[in-house]
């Protein structure tokens, strides 16, 4: 084995993981606020229902509530974040900080989703919500650039599965298509609210040649994934982790894919996998047992995502640190996931290609070459005239 291949197989350091260019496709705006911002916005907006008013304690409360295994407590976390995101100023700030935090964490491209219909309590219109969030993302991109980071953020507009506004939200996404909104999504409880309830929205978007992802195959299994793909025509699967139920691994390690799993792999359907979130909702028992290990090995179009950074106390770098620990992933694996995600983004093909060739690959090449210079630094002092 050459020293280069030894280096290539080395686990990346935390610092390298953070600096590596990462791509995020599944992140909720109302799940990623800074705890201090929740406190500020609650105070400024007269929101009095927070369980804690000190930023650190509130951060812990969010993680514990999400970890509790109680759906009620988990949903309560979002009632607070959404509760303080009801004014234009609040939405601009949350979106700006979201872009700044992702950029600081080494994310170069992100699609961040939110449900406009949840931000109308204090009189904003759907249009005003979208304009405020877009303004925040643009501001965040600018401040990130001033701090030496480059990030591009697109918005996905989410409709809630239990509500009946999906067509209206799909039309909203289409109207703002070339102004910061890159696609559509539906979210909320899977059980009892199949995506087929929203067929009119999906059919509308298909007629408009627009893109959408669907939360499917998280808590609920294969039927949900099948409906999202074969009835609704989703471009990507939000989670999709239960596709594992259609994959048989025999004692000798041989693997057999069912028809649906084969379809997902053959058609390169992107899976927006969110390891930490899945551990909290019980979809996986540990990082080492998370299906992402097998799905990566089988070359599914797997991507790594954060879902709700506040509730899971996570970031893209944290997600990769867990995966490096659990599966021994290297910078090559990280690059594979990042290129997969970029290929699956909803922006135009030429822009995706430029991100891959001009940002992501050079970024990893730079990190992978660092060992060469470390070696020079550590040996140059011992050189003699004869060398
Ligand atoms: Zn989600």
Automatic annotation (TrEMBL):
Q: Does the keyword Kinase apply?
A: no
* Residues annotated as binding substrate: 28, 30, 188
EC number(s) on file? 3.5.4.4
- Record-annotated site: Important for catalytic activity: 239
Q: Which domain of life is it from?
A: Bacteria
The UniProt record lists the Adenosine deaminase domain at 21-361
Q: Name one Pfam family in it.
A: A_deaminase
> Which InterPro entries does the annotation name?
A_deaminase (IPR028893), A_deaminase_dom (IPR001365), Ado/ade_deaminase (IPR006330), Metal_Hydrolase (IPR032466)
Report the GO molecular function annotations: adenosine deaminase activity; zinc ion binding
Q: Which reaction does it catalyse?
A: 2'-deoxyadenosine + H2O + H(+) = 2'-deoxyinosine + NH4(+); adenosine + H2O + H(+) = inosine + NH4(+)
Q: Name one GO cellular component term.
A: cytosol
Positions of the catalytic residues: 218 (proton donor)
GO biological process assignments: adenosine catabolic process; hypoxanthine salvage; inosine biosynthetic process; nucleotide metabolic process; purine ribonucleoside monophosphate biosynthetic process
Q: Which residues does the annotation say bind Zn(2+)?
A: 26, 28, 215, 307
> Keyword set for this entry?
Hydrolase, Metal-binding, Nucleotide metabolism, Zinc
What's the record's note on cofactor binding? Answer: Binds 1 zinc ion per subunit.
Q: Which cofactor does it need?
A: Zn(2+)
Q: Which family does it belong to?
A: Belongs to the metallo-dependent hydrolases superfamily. Adenosine and AMP deaminases family. Adenosine deaminase subfamily.
UniProt cross-references to NCBIfam families, sorted A to Z: aden_deam (TIGR01430), PRK09358.1-2 (NF006847)
Q: Which HAMAP family match?
A: A_deaminase
Protein name per the record: Adenosine deaminase
Organism of derivation: Streptomyces humidus
């Amino acid at each position: 084995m050459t020293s280069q291949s030894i280096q290539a197989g080395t686990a990346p350091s935390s610092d390298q993981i953070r600096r590596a260019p990462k791509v995020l496709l599944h992140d909720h705006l109302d799940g990623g606020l800074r705890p201090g911002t929740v406190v500020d916005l609650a105070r400024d907006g007269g929101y009095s229902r927070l369980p804690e008013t000190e930023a650190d304690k509130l951060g812990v409360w969010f993680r514990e509530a999400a970890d509790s295994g109680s759906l009620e407590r988990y949903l309560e976390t979002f009632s607070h974040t959404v509760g303080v995101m009801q004014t234009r100023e609040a939405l601009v700030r949350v979106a700006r900080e979201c872009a700044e935090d992702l950029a600081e964490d080494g994310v170069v491209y992100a699609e961040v989703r939110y449900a406009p219909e949840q931000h109308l309590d204090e009189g904003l219109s759907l249009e005003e919500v979208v304009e405020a969030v877009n303004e925040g993302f643009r501001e965040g991109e600018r401040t990130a650039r001033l701090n030496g980071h480059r990030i591009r953020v697109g918005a996905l507009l989410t409709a809630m599965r239990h509500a009946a506004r999906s067509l209206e939200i799909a039309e909203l996404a289409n109207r703002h298509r070339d102004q910061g909104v890159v696609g559509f999504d539906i979210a909320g409880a899977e059980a009892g609210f199949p995506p087929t309830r929203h067929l009119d929205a999906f059919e509308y978007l298909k007629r408009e040649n627009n893109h959408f992802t669907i939360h499917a195959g998280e808590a609920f299994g294969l039927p949900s994934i099948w409906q999202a793909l074969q009835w609704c025509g989703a471009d990507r699967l939000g989670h999709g982790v239960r596709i594992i139920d259609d994959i048989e691994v025999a004692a000798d390690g041989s693997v057999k894919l069912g028809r649906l799993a084969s379809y997902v792999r053959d058609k390169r359907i992107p899976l927006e996998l969110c390891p930490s979130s899945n551990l909290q909702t019980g979809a996986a028992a540990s990082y080492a047992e998370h299906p992402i290990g097998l799905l990566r090995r089988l070359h599914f179009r797997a991507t790594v995502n954060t879902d709700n950074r506040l509730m899971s106390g996570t970031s893209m770098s944290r997600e990769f640190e867990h995966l490096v620990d659990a599966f021994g992933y290297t910078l090559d694996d990280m690059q594979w996931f990042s290129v997969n995600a970029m290929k699956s983004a909803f922006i135009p093909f030429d822009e995706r290609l430029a991100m891959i060739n001009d940002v992501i690959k050079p970024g990893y090449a730079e990190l992978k070459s660092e060992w060469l210079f470390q070696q020079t630094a550590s040996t140059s002092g011992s050189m003699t005239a004869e060398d």
